[in-house]
User: Fold these one by one.
Assistant:
Number 1:
Amino acid sequence: MTEILWTRPEGECFGTLVLAHGAGAPMDANFMNRFAEALAMHGVAVARFEFAYMAKRRETGRKSPPPRADKLIGEFQKVTQQILEETEGPLLIGGKSMGGRVAAILAGGDSLPKRVTGVACLGYPFHPIGKSDAEHWRLEPLQNAQRPVFIAQGDRDQMGNKSEVKAIELPETVSIDWLEDGNHDLAPRGASPATWKGNIEQSALKTAEFLKALIS
C-alpha cells in the first residue's frame, strides 16, 4: 500500500481530498503543507501521497524526471481506491500542477465511483512554460473530465495566466478562482498587496466551498 500523509480537521470532517504533488516537489513540500493545513481548517481532510518516481527520489537522493502524466493515472487510481476503503463520505481528487492534471485525466474515465465528486487543481499547467501556442495547450483532460473541476490559479501563472486562459473556451463544468498576482505556486510578488498566505488560504476556502456545493 502507498504511504499516505494525512492532515485531518480537529472538528467535523465532511469530505476528503486525495492530493498529489507537482512534478518537482514532494508531498511534504512547503506549499503542500500550507495548503493541507488551510483546507483542514475548513473541515476537509487531506490525504497526500507520492508517485513512485518521487518516492524513489526520497530513498536514493537522486533526481529523475517524472513519467508522462498519462503514465501516472494507474498509481493515482490505486491510491484513490485505498482512500475510499479507509474513509467514509465524499472525495475530491486533485493535486498541485502535474498532480492536478493527472487527477483530471483520471476523471475522464469510467472507473471512478460516485463518492468521487469532483477534481481540485492547484495551479493547473495549461501549457509548458514559454510554450503558449495552441499545439501545446493541455485542455483535453478538462474537456473530457466526467466530474466538475475547480482550479485555483495565480493570475500571472507562467503555465496559464489570466489573460491567456480567458481567451480560450472551457467547459461549463470547469470553474477557476484567480489568485491576485499569483505565480504557478500562487505566490505574489513582494510589492503586491496580496500575500502567499492569503492566496493559499483563499484557494483552500474555495476548494472547501466547491466540495460543499457538490454534496449539498
Note: The beta strands are 5-7, 15-20, 44-49, 91-96, 116-122, 149-154, 174-179.
Number 2:
Amino acid sequence: MKKNKNLIIAIVAAVAVIAILVIYTVVSNRDSSAGTETAEGTSSSESTDSSSSESTDSSEEEVTIDSENPSVSSSLVITVTDGSSTSLKEYPVEDYVTLGDYIGMELTVDPLEEVDDESVTYLAESYFASLATEYAAALTEGQLVEEGDTANIDYTGYLDGVAFDGGTATGYDLVIGSGSFIDGFEDGLIGVAVGDTVDLNLTFPSDYASNPSLAGKEVVFTVTVNYVTPAMTDDNVSVVTGGSYNTVEDLEEFCRAYLEYVAQYNYQSALDSAVIEGVLPLCSVTEVPDWLYNMLYDNLTASIESEASSYGLDGETYCSYFVGVSMAEYALLMADEYTPEVMIFQAIANAEGLNPTEEELDEQVELYMSYYGYETEEEVYKYYISRDNIEMYLMQTNVADFLAENAVITETEATTE
C-alpha cells in the first residue's frame, strides 16, 4: 500500500483500526475451528488451561476478563510495567524483539485478477437496476409492455366475482413470455401501457394441480402494470444516477475502475498476508508491555463489535455464532497473536526508519475529517480513531510495503475454468 493512494483507498484501508495485521489475524482465526483454537492455542486464561489439562470436570469454564486490565487473563508473559511511554515508537522494543533476516524473503501470491468486459457489463447493469427501481414508474410511464419485458404488476384473481386464495399479489416482477402464469395472462399484458389496469378473462387448465379447486374454472384477473424495468440508456443512466454519469459508457468506466480497484486491493491484501506469514517465523518476542496488550485488546473488541453490527448482531452473539467462544475469549486469542506481531513490525520500523512523520499523520487525519465530515482533529480522535492508532496503522503499512519491495515474489499460475 503506497502512501500516494487516493482517498477511497485510504478510507477503506483505515476502516480496520489496526489494519493489515488484524485482517490477517481475523481471517486466520475464523478459518480455524473454535475447538482447535481452544485446545491448541496458548491464549486462554490460566483457569481455562488448567481445567482442560488437569480437571476431570468436562464442563467448560467461562473465561472471565478483567475489563480494567485484560492482560492479566492472558498466558503471555506480561511483565513490562516500568511506566515507560505508551507510544510504541518511543518504547524500547529492541530489548524484547529479535529480528531475523527479513530482506529478500521468498513470497508466493496469486496474480492480480484481470477485469474483463463481461464483469464490467454485469456490474453496470446490476448497479443501474438497483437504482432504477425508484425511478422506474416515471421513466416508463405510458410505455407499452412488450414480450421479453419485466413488468412489475399488482393483480387480483376473481372466481364468480370473489377474490380467490393465492390469486393476489402486489409489486410482482413478471417476465413477459416466460410462461410463469397460466395461458393468456402474459399475452394479455402485451400492449398494455404502464399505469393502466386491465381485466383478463382466463380459464385455468383442467389439470391445474397447484389448486385443484380452480381446475377448469373461468376467472378474471384484474392487473395493474406499475412499471416496466427501464432499459439502460444514456438518458436513463443520467436520471437514476442524478447526473453523476450521463452515459452508459460513463457508468461502465466507473464500474471498470471500481473492479480494478477491488482487484488491486485484494492483491495487496494477499501480499500483506504473505509478508506477515513470511516475516513472523524469522523473528521472536520475549515480552510485550501490558499497556500495548490492553490497548490492542480494546481495539480488537471494538473491531469485533463493528463487524458484528454489519450482521445486525452484538459482539457477543456474533462470536458465539461464528466462532463458538465468548467475545472476551476471542479478543484474547486475537490479542495474544497480534501483540507480538505489532512489536516485530515496530522493531523493523525503527531499524529501517519507517515510522510515519507528523506530516503523514496530519494528512491521514485530514482524510478522515474530509470523508466523515468532521470539522476538527479532536472530533476524529473522539468519534473515530485515536492518533496513536493512526500512527500504528501507518507504521505497519510502511513496514509491509518495505518488506514486499525487498522480497522475491512469485505469482501462482492462473487457473482456467
Note: The CA atoms of residues 86 and 291 lie 7 Å apart.
Number 3:
Amino acid sequence: MNLKNERKLQLMILAGCFVLFSILLLVANHVRPSEGGQEGLYYERGRVVELVYESTNPYFRYQTLLVEMITGEFQGMTVEAQNNLMNPRLPTFDEGDRVIVELTETSIQISSPDRGISHILFIALFLILLCLIGGKRGFLAVSGLLFSLATILFILVPLTLAGYPSIFVAVIVGILIIVTSITFLAGVNAKSIAAISGCIAGVLIAALFAFIAGRFSFISGYHIERIGFLRLWNPELPISGIFISGVIIAAIGAISDTSMTIASAMEEIKRANPTITRHQLAQAGFNIGRDAMGTMSNTLILAFVGSSFSVILLFTSLDMSWIQFINEDEIGIEIIQGIAGSIGIVSTVPITTFISAKLFSLNNRE
C-alpha cells in the first residue's frame, strides 16, 4: 500500500470513528439521567477575606470565615462560611486562600480548597512536555488522550448512568478508543492492524477473566467503593457490570502499549532484515513480547497496589490474619483487576506476534 492510499484509508477510518463517536454522543445526551440527590446543593468558588473565629476545642474544631464569592449567584458578595475541622483531611484556611463553598438553603460551608487552577497547570505542564519532547508523535499522543477522555466522560459515563448494559457499552467505547488512538498515531498499515487486533483481543480476554473470577469470588459491582451512594442516587442503575467496565477501561492503556511495542519492534526487524522468515520473525516477536509482558504486568499490578495502599495499611494495622486479609472485598477487587489486566497483557503477546509475523511476511516466500 503506497503512502497516498494509506493516508486515504486512515482518513476514512478516522472519519468512521468520528461518526460513531457523534452518534454515541447524541444518544448519550438524549438519555442523560434525571437529576437527583443534589437538588438545592451548589458548589461555587470563593476567596477567604477574613478569619472571624477558630475553635480550639479538640472535640469540635471549626473555623468561621468571611468569604468573597467569585462565581455563582452571590458573585462579588461576602458571606460567612463555616469550615468544619472534625475530619482530619480538611485543612485550615487563612486570608487570601481560595476555597470551594458548599451552599444549601440552610447553610454555607467550606467544602475543600480550590485546586482547579493548580490541577489545570499540572495538566498543561504534562501536555506541553509531551508535545515538546515527543514532537509530532507527542502531539498525536495528546490528541488521542483527549479523545479517550472525552469518550469516557461524555459517552461511557452517561450511557452507563442511563441504564444501558455497562459491559456492552464499555466494550464499544474501548474498541472505539483503541482503533482511533492507534490509527491516529500510526496510520493504517500492517503494524497498526496487528496492534489493534492484539489490543482488542487482550482487552476482551481481560474482561472475560474478570467476569469469571468475579463470579467465583462472589465479587461484583456492589463491592466497589462508594457504589452505595450511586445506588441511592439512582436506584434503577444496573450495578453488576460496572466492575467489568472498570477492568476494560483500566486495561486498555497497558495492553495497547504492549501490542504497539511488539508490532513496532517486529516492523523494524523486518525492515532491517527483509529476508527474515516468518518463523524467525515470530520468534523475535515472542522474545520482545516476553520482556514487555514482564515489565507491563509489573507496572499494572503495582499501580493497583498503589491505589489501595491506604487500605493495605489499615488492614495491616488492625493485625488481621492472612485468611481475613485475603478475603476482604477491597483486596479481592484489586487482585482480580490486577490479574485480569496482566492476563490481558499475556494474551496480547502471542496474538500480536502471530498477526504481525503473518502481515509482515506476506511478500516472503518461505
Note: The radius of gyration is 25 Å.
